[in-house]
Amino acid sequence: xxxxxxxxxxxxxxxxxxxxxxxxxxxxxxxxxxxxxxxxxxxxxxxxxxxxxxxxxxxxxxxxxxxxxxxxxxxxxxxxxxxxxxxxxxxxxxxxxxxxxxxxxxxxxxxxxxxxxxxxxxxxxxxxxxxxxxxxxxxxxxxxxxxxxxxxxxxxxxxxxxxxxxxxxxxxxxxxxxxxxxxxxxxxxxxxxxxxxxxxxxxxxxxxxxxxxxxxxxxxxxxxxxxxxxxxxxxxxxxxxxxxxxxxxxxxxxxxxxxxxxxxxxxxxxxxxxxxxxxxxxxx
Length: 284
Description:
By secondary structure, the protein is α/β, with parallel strands linked by helices. The protein has nine helices and twelve strands. The protein folds into three domains: 5-85, Winged helix-like DNA-binding domain superfamily/Winged helix DNA-binding domain (Arc Repressor Mutant, subunit A, Orthogonal Bundle), CATH 1.10.10.10; 90-158 and 256-283, D-Maltodextrin-Binding Protein, domain 2, CATH 3.40.190.10; 161-253, 3-Layer(aba) Sandwich (D-Maltodextrin-Binding Protein, domain 2), CATH 3.40.190.10. The chain has helices spanning 5-17, 20-27, 31-45, 61-85, 104-114, 179-183, 215-223, 233-238, 270-283; strands spanning 50-52, 57-59, 90-95, 119-124, 139-142, 151-159, 161-166, 187-189, 209-211, 229-232, 244-248, 255-262. The protein has a five-stranded mixed beta sheet, covered by helices on one side. A three-stranded antiparallel beta sheet has the order 10-7-11. A two-stranded antiparallel ribbon has the order 1-2. Strand 3, helix 5 and strand 4 (119-124) form a beta-alpha-beta unit. Helix 1 (5-17) packs across helix 3 (31-45). The radius of gyration is 28 Å and the shape is elongated. 32% of the residues are buried.
């Protein structure tokens, strides 16, 4: 069974206009073409869709159901076309955990001022590519390298690592911590989207780990005091929470913040986004 969009458009036009003649005018074809297209749709579906009299055309019971589905299908197709052709007027930036931390609001405001013709949306997608591979965004903020065969990326800034812990943890009384302070604690990690692995520690002093799968779960578990976490400082800015504190990890290397995109299909605003984010991170 093959049903074509032109057949669905023809059916909807007949119902909306009320006659084959008026539907033909709207569609820009002959009345005979409208009749043939409707007949081919009825043959494909195996049901009668319209009742015709000398005065009017009305849908059958089956026709009413098909028209309802046809409207939804045509609406989805129109939305698909708009989405595919609106690259110059909208920009979706995905992130898995913490967007741009303290720079998030400044980025949104600066973008609105300097690129009012391009609507900006930040989209949180809890995946390794922050929604890029899933088609949920045009660009993605990521904090670890992606598959270089499919994606390209540029480092736009660096962020310190911080340790997240319960506010009554003994380490919370310090202004900063070191990797050795965390080595004997249970470390909560997100292997899919997180930035921390036990490779930060020497092989003989790596902490035991437990796994989390979402930033909210991660924060909730850490606030119980049974484990600690290490993350980019942007998480601390994005997720302040009662009962939980963040302390800088003095001897841990910084985390590169990357802007990533499809290698074979970069968004027109990619370079402008890189330049603005780089400026914000350099400003501190």
